[in-house]
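Record minuted for completeness.

…
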Amino acid sequence: MTPNLMPAVGPLMETEANAEVVQSHRYIRFGPFHIDQQRQQVFRNGNRLKLQGKVYQVLLVLIAKYGHVVTREELKQALWPSDTHVNFDANVNTTVNKLRQILGDSTEKPIYIETIPRKGYSFIAEPEFATQPFPQSLLAASNGTASAGSSIDGGNGERNSGRWLTLGIIGLILAGILLGAGIATFWISHWAR
């Protein structure tokens, strides 16, 4: 671990301590996901994801209480002011389902968000917290499309070799067409005499 990394908060820690850790660190990482809290951006393998405000807020609330159950009431209080009049149950369900969809998670075999029947939800992945960007985040930010574990040159090299292969095939097809047209022109002019 690098000096700016903080290990994941254990489930035995108090939830207030978890929330304090989340608030005091700009960067969070779990699985292939990286969060930059200052910019309110989430990345998966270096590619930026578009999370709506409530979906992003649910993710942070769940991470802040990592290992603990976040009740539906706590999500309601975190997401909507007390004077808001909406169907909270339906909105909480929709928001959590959108988050699961974005994370590629399922209710049957959860990797990140576990449903606790009649209680709420629990974030079950192991988050890491840091004050400086994670090394993979730097790589992805400089390349824009690099995936975790790939090098900048390797990613560009693969893209460029595919481009050259396509251009080579197009060149061969054009050469074949021109050669065929030349032979046809010669043949017609030779027999037309």
